[in-house]
Amino acid sequence: MRAVVMYGPGDVRVDQTERPTIAEPTDAVIRLAASCICGSDLWPYRGADDVDHQPMGHEYVGVVEEVGDDVAQVRVGDFVVGSFFSSDNTCAICRAGYQSHCVHRGPGAVPGAQAEYARIPHADGTLVATPGPPADDLVPSLLAASDVLGTGWFAAVAAEAGPGKTVAVVGDGAVGLLGVLAARQLGAERVIAMSRHADRQALARDFGATDVVEERGDAGVARIKQLTDGLGAHSTIEAVGTQESMMQAIRSTRPGGHVGYVGVSHDVVLPGRQLFYSGVHLHGGPAPVRRFLPDLIDRIWRRHIDPGKVFDLTLPLDEAAEGYRAMDERRAIKVLLTV
Ligand SMILES: [Zn+2]
């Protein structure tokens, strides 16, 4: 089969590799219907994370081709959505809604989801089947549910976005933009998107942002305070993962408020004293997307939300290298790969 492999920073190729097979009785093998490139794939691409001949991709939708003997919930022929970690969905951590920390946690798609086929460990606890074969135009939204929507949703939940709340969103990548959508769906009264790019601002407004703040750093914090009677947001979504963005989020939140942080942390160091006096709640980490998948699939299926709009470039799998370049150069928000 064809699969995307990152040989090293900036070097993405499509290789012929072995098609995965059932390795454990709890596995399924799926044929990908679509895949995509994640903002987090840019960390190794830019040399910020080590990478050496790494099969890429962790967002996926597809059709079940084969299941192991112990798989009972998903069946051959089902159209399924999974996420970046596999989970048994039965342990105490999973039952509490934290499937991304499952005691049996592993990669969600092996060897990678930017490929024609992938093996899914713990298929029953990882995959959720759609009510039937989806219409073609629903596939991008279902694919978004696999990571960026599920992650943005968790960020909004962790930030306790809801009725009467003002939510600030730090980060205008796909996760931040879908955090805007999630906050509005959860009933937030006001959603302030922080972005300086016209195309991303437009999409943020389309997803329900009521305000846009272009300033960053001290000026960004001052602007959020100005929009919130000097208090700061009730809820802030952090969707970048840098020191600057994390502090932007904490400082933009009022005492007693909540920060939901989902940007993969890179060298973030929290200053204890500033944290102590901020009086904010911090919650985040890798999103337990599996918790939200049944609800998100239902909202997409009934066409109540259209998160697939974050894909502004579609390329065949064979042109994955161009997809990485486009995202790296911020020519594209998110790239869908047709398989
Ligand atoms: Zn578990």
Automatic annotation (TrEMBL):
Keyword Metal-binding: yes
Lineage: Bacteria, Bacillati, Actinomycetota, Actinomycetes, Micrococcales
Reported cofactor(s): Zn(2+)
All residue ranges annotated as the Alcohol dehydrogenase-like N-terminal domain in the record: 25-124
Keyword list, A-Z: Metal-binding, Oxidoreductase, Zinc
Protein name: Zinc-dependent alcohol dehydrogenase family protein
Pfam families with a match to the protein in the record: ADH_N (PF08240), ADH_zinc_N (PF00107)
Organism superkingdom: Bacteria
